Predict the 3D structure of the following.
Amino acid sequence: MKHRIVVKVGSLAVTDELGGVSAQKIKALISDLHELKIHGYLPILISSGAINTGRKLITKPDEKRMMISYQQSCAAVGQPLLMKSYIDALSEYNWPCAQILVTHEDFKERKRFLNIRNTINRLLDDGILPIVNENDTVSFEEITVGDNDQLAVMMTEASDAEKLILLSEADGLFDKNPKEADAKRFEEVEFNDNFSGVKIATKTSVGRGGMDTKLKAVRKLTPLGVDVILGTFLKEKAVSRLLIHKGGTTFKGNPTKQKSRRKSWLSTVVKNDSYVVVDEGAAKALLEKDTSLLPVGIKKLSGKFKRGDVIQIRHKSKIIAVGMIEYDTKEMELIKGRKSDELNSILDFAHSKVAIHKDNLLLKKDEL
Ligand code: GLU
């Protein structure tokens, strides 16, 4: 089983202080992530830095604090340059990457959320590194994610990652301003420990997050069983050193939820009035071989469901699993009992070969 982790780097981790992308910083980051990949991790990278990269190329407006259109233009110019640098660094390892630009709206709307989730699953299955940033061109006040720390939280939820690593200047959380000589770093914070009242470093002038948004991420994700790790990008092997506890602060996720976040989530949202009935072969494949449920194994449907609903899977009137369905009732009626390679000729748009992907399936026998 591979371990999904989301790694978020702030602008200064990949660009130069005065603007422009830093090929050197990106090379070091990719080499570190590649090492993790070799050790069984599947990283998803959230990278800021588009605005600061583009800053070098666009004339600064006179206004004191930069206009949003200036920042958006910088991002539009900077994003491809940032990606180019990533592609160059990744080429050394023959590791392809994908660019994903999203806004807050995309996570709020269920269909779009599912599309993000499916794309990420697919990319990771194919060994591709997803590189995510906010789509700054269309991000204005109402739809902005706010900062890439929040975006990283949303991506961690959407991808069911086990850990979120947030890299910034400070090497974690300290009991006082880390610039003071006797400041002590918290190495590990147990789930639900009270860390209010500790002094936090102020945010940098580049990028939108700060320690505040990082602690927000901790409050949001640790109850779901996700470990959130804060550390500095200024050290060598910035990400892997955190995973072996050589620095940074690890906020432990709720241990009872950790076992299987996706599974517990599925069982809480299942629609009890909707189900598919599967044949002997499909039931056996699901229970014994840990496979996805294919349309060919479905004999009958009951109730009404939409794509993305979590429904029951029954065999001989027993519920054997629950899972997130890829097609709505109408479509399922048309494709049940049919082979996956026939789907394209039956439906206008057959976006998936499976009815329920194994990543979105909880077998009753495994239920927590
Ligand atoms: N999306 C912005 C960029 O690429 C950064 C936002 C942030 O740092 O939170 O420059």
